[in-house]
């Protein structure tokens, strides 16, 4: 490997990390350096983000320790057979970069992943060393997200959880078949085994802290994972069911969906073009329906056409159009769970409706103030002065309510 200075390494290793979408920093504990103690804080919306040219949100200091790798996953730009320029940081270099960037207010935390060098354990040791030095030597109180290496020793993964706010292990692909085809050196059982160990460690330390205040904190922002969408043949239905299973079994904080990006010198087994970015967006919306709107995974899948969520309308609207017999919903009487099914009503709007209707009958104008699109919502509700009459059953209802120009309306829902 040619000798590179820090700036050159940073250019290579930050670029190599941009394919990982799981960089959000929500849900961690509150820490700060007030009173002159330590450095950094986890306040505000977490680590800084930038936007990649394709519109994806990426964090500012999101780097790999190295983009060299002994594995050869077909979809990965850093795979062994790729001829990209390689670079490698020492743990101390990452520590210094993080501190320098932090002091200059460029970042609020570190997202660190790595290709596998020498062995899984060796790589994991290096990742843990970065987090340990930041926390123990520099009293760093900013956010740390470590990607863990599934094959590494349980003890190393446990140490990662002691220093990091969030740990994540990528399941990579929605199906075991996809994983075998595209990441032949990875194994679903080993990945899930590591996630099970992490879940047990998080649960154990939570229990311990309930009994003893002095017990150490362990990955307070939980564990997450990422799935690549569109690299194998898995449809949205398979992805939704897989995500739901992962939430249930491993109590994940988040599943991230990353639309496959074609890479230079791609392997012949990969598709030539990327899936529409809107597909990734629809999967995030379906994920929210399961986590915050009370939909079961099978209900979300029922909103799809032959396993694929429609791209022109959001999954909540698609479900309402398919199950029109459940509508209209009376905003003055319906229970919360039915109000949450109304297209155009988000969780906050439903809360406002439930609060306001205790004092008076709600009219259409009251609802208008709670939604970005009354047109989308009108066919699905009854209010004190509004009934949709035959509107709900019109054959052309989809055309009437679908957004004219598609917008990324993340949970106007
Ligand atoms: S192990 Fe990770 S870095 Fe290595 S080729 Fe596979 S996805 Fe890429």
TrEMBL record:
GO terms for molecular function: catalytic activity; iron-sulfur cluster binding; metal ion binding. Keywords: Iron, Iron-sulfur, Metal-binding, S-adenosyl-L-methionine. SUPFAM superfamilies: Radical SAM enzymes, RuvA domain 2-like. SMART domains: Elp3 (SM00729). The keyword Repeat does not apply. InterPro entries: Aldolase_TIM (IPR013785), DNA_rSAM_put (IPR023874), Elp3/MiaA/NifB-like_rSAM (IPR006638), Endo/Exo/Phosphatase_dom_1 (IPR051675), rSAM (IPR007197), rSAM_sf (IPR058240), RuvA_2-like (IPR010994). The keyword Zinc-finger does not apply. This is Biotin synthase related domain containing protein.
